[in-house]
Specification:
This protein is of the alpha+beta class. The chain has 2 domains: 6-135, Ribosomal Protein S5, domain 2; 137-201, Alpha-Beta Plaits (2-Layer Sandwich), CATH 3.30.70.240. Helices cover 32% and strands 37% of the residues. It contains 5 helices and 11 strands, in the order βββαββαβαββαββαβ. The strands form 3 sheets. The chain has a 5-stranded antiparallel β-sheet, sandwiched between helices. Strands 9-10-8-11 form a 4-stranded antiparallel β-sheet. Strand 4 and strand 5 form a beta hairpin. Helix 2 (82-91) packs parallel to helix 3 (111-129). The longest helix has 19 residues, at 111-129. Pfam families: Impact_N (PF01205). One of its GO terms (biological process) is regulation of translational initiation.
Amino acid sequence: MTEKDTYKTIDTSTEAILFKDKNSKFFGYAYPITSEDDVKLHINNLKKEHHAARHWCYAYQIGTEHISYRANDDGEPNNSAGMPIYGQIQSFDVTNILIVVVRYFGGIKLGVGGLINAYKTTAQLTLEASKILKKTINVDYLITFDYKNMNTVMRIIKEKKLNITNQKLELDCQITISVRKKEALQVFEIFNNLFEITIREI
């Protein structure tokens, strides 16, 4: 079995998706995120935008190999909102994503079953409207060398079609490369075996 080195996520946030049930309105939003600070920012913005709403329920997942997630019912009955939203994140197999469902209460109670269905459906519709992309899991390396070894390093980078993310080319040179995970060890060994050139993961 080969080690997984791709994941699915979204690059841009989606327009609000509206789902209605018995006069209650559910607005679904999806955002690309990389940290819990991103989550707080988006929730706070939605609370300002939908200040008259009753609930701002959400779920998120961050990470590709070490996953962290959270589901929040925000005052709805236990597991009637956050977990149905998170279930859709799992169902679509996406990560680095936040889904928020904002609810305006319409005066008629939906019951726990109705709530689960409404939050699940809104999250599903939101993900269906999102542009989901497949990305590679990459390893970043810092290569350090003297200027005289520049041609050697650059030749390998060109041959292997490596992606340079940062470089400092002076008397002592540093280049940061991003390598797809399944090719990372091979690339590391090529540079590691070269005289006067050091490579380390960052």
